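Section 4.2 – Deliverable D4.2 (structural model, holo form)

The reporting period included a commitment to supply a predicted holo structure for the target in complex with zinc ion. Inputs used:
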Amino acid sequence: MSSVDLRKLVSFLDKELALSEFPGDESINGLQVEGSSRVHRIGVAVDACDHVFREAAEKQIDFLLVHHGLIWGGIKALTGIMKTRVKTLLDAGISLYACHLPLDWHPVHGNNSRILKLLKIRQTGEFGEYHGRRIGYWGRTGREMSLKEFSSLVDRTLQTETLVRDFGRPVRNVGVVSGGGWSAIYEAAQYDIDTFLTGEPSHSAYSLAEEMKVNLVFAGHYATETVGVRAVGQMLGARYRLMTEFIDHPTGL
Ligand SMILES: [Zn+2]
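Output (structure tokens):
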């Protein structure tokens, strides 16, 4: 059975995912919990939580890459839920690797570029500043679409149920920021974006979108952030000839 040295895998990922370009990310990106020194089986998931950790342990995964890690800002205390989560990982020898903003932004493996690619929208430029860096992209659809047609395409592609607010424009220039990226709407006029696709619904976005005449498509925080980890999983599987698995634990939010 093929395997890879944990340190080798981590240093490859740190570089490939350009972690050093996001020093201001609140997430402690990179290896957060150290497990077995050799990796035989890789798992990817959106959220670091006990449900996912237990499933990973059952599947004998020894390296788990997630978008939302366990450590934000720093370790405070390993008590309660945090103790249980870390114990599940350590008992099973699972390493936890987190990649937050770099995985929203990444031009090849990232959530936003992958969403555009899956929707067959040509990526035109960066969009959506967050903590001083643009992490989203915008692009033009191949042809003009109705908002209904576009939102059904998003539903099918991301296996989600979008929440849509129609402010009267046909879909041509689409801006995408995954997760809780609603504030990128402020930049919509700058790129003549008519339709803004993000994850989590935000009440604050409504009036701005109405006045800017930008359609809102909320596709779910979870659904918009499955694509990046899956892309990295596929890339690692091919590179190291290892079994990789996506652990799906949808929140529906
Ligand atoms: Zn997120």
